[in-house]
Amino acid sequence: MSSRLLSGIVCVGLVAVLAFLALAWRPAIAPIETPAPQSFAPELVAKGKMLASAGNCQSCHTVEGGQPFAGGVGIPTPFGTIYSTNITPDRTVGIGAWSLAAFERAMREGVGRDGKHLFPAFPYDHFARLTDDDVTALYAYLMTVAPVNAVQPANTVPFPLDIRALQAGWKMLFFRPGPSLPDPQRSAGWNRGAYLSEGLAHCGACHTPRNVLGAESRGLPYDGAVIKDGWIAWPLDVSPSPARWTKDSFIAYLKGETTENHGRALGPMGPVIHGLKALPGEDIAAIADYFMSFNRPLRPKADALAQQALERSRTIGQDRRERGRQLYVGACASCHDDGGTAPLATRARLPLTTALWHDRPNNFVLTVRNGVGAPDDAPGPPMPPFAASLSDSEIVAIADYLRHTRLGLPKWPAELYDEIASP
Q1: Do 255 and 265 meet the contact criterion of CB atoms below 8 Å apart?
Q2: Which residues are paired to 383 by β-bridges?
């Protein structure tokens, strides 16, 4: 009896495994001769270049100092490091032998030309939303860039998680293929912004927290997450700062300008903003329309809190956090206080910045350490890096001082600082 039961269980298990493998299997798509760059219409290539810039493709597929789109950028995940692939038209290690159909399948289904499932570190769950025309334009552009014979390092995902067929199971659980459908209850601008944000720009890939299996948490869209090198991608649904975003301030932020209440894009967001500059102004405005439709301050009585924070910064005198005050006066006050030398339009008002209001100190610490480069096409001096002149304990003292005096909030717990990457 027990022997027959065991045999039955084994048979059922084998049938289940075979059924899964059958569902997971994808055929290879035959290679083609690499299309000549001149075979693509110039206007199609130009459109593809704009889309690739807005999608931040080069940042993920180009190592620092390397050839564009040659791959090799390490993407850390809880399961190991996954290295981006070579997407130049090299025939042996790039996509030079890929047909448009193979490229479309990778973008829409997360399956390579050879039939292997791609890891979702490549955000095909977002790119699946793209229109046929946009996918075709991206293909045309990538087939005209310089081919590079560069092989990326081996991924460090351990066995058995490195079995590509298992990605089919991940897709069954978390991937919903299909194009982006407009919301008939919304304006054309809002729908364009949703298409760009949810698809091409894949904002949720950084700004949405992930579950234990690495998928974006569906119940927490744009709720913010810790990303590369300890930086925090801010929540885009509710703002930790009481300062309200306006459409104009959000547009300015997306253009790389310094906004009075929220500063400017720093860390991994910097290259994203640089790429978005390729889009026409109406597309930037559409993205702002989309996010402004649900962005709101997190805290009650936000306007009153914002005003109180500004009043504190104008009237603050001596404080029991004497060390923090002295360090702030010596390193920061000449630019950031209302009586400072830097024009208001070129600096953030510290009492309203998300970096101080957030419940984690990551971005405040990393900004002080790394500084802020000179904005492209924007006035004002850069902020110098203080990693060499301020110790970690001194940066903590400044943070404690500002949180107490400007915001009326308690200092960040010491253990939160331990989670920030060392300089």
Answers
A1: no
A2: 372
User: Hey, which residues does 83 pair with through a beta bridge?
Assistant: 74
pTM of the predicted protein model: 0.87
Whether 332 maps to a domain, the answer reads yes
The answer to whether residues 157 and 235 belong to one domain is no
Domain count, the chain: 3
- CA-angle at 217, arms to 214 and 218, nearest 5°: 135
The residue with greater pLDDT, 70 or 345, is 70
CA distances to 179, 289, 334, 406 from 196, rounded to whole Å, are: 12, 11, 40, 37
More confident residue, 49 or 267: 49
Instruction: Give the count of beta carbons closer than 10 Å to the beta carbon of residue 263.
Output: 21
Q: Is the pLDDT of residue 111 over 70?
A: yes
**Are 27 and 169 within one domain?**
yes
Burial of 193 (0-12, 13-18, 19+ CB in 10 A): buried
Q: How confident is the model at residue 373 (pLDDT cuts 50, 70, 90)?
A: confident
Residue 220 one-letter amino acid: L
Both tokens of residue 404?
Answer: 């107490």
Q: Which among 119, 145, 174 is the end of a domain?
A: 174
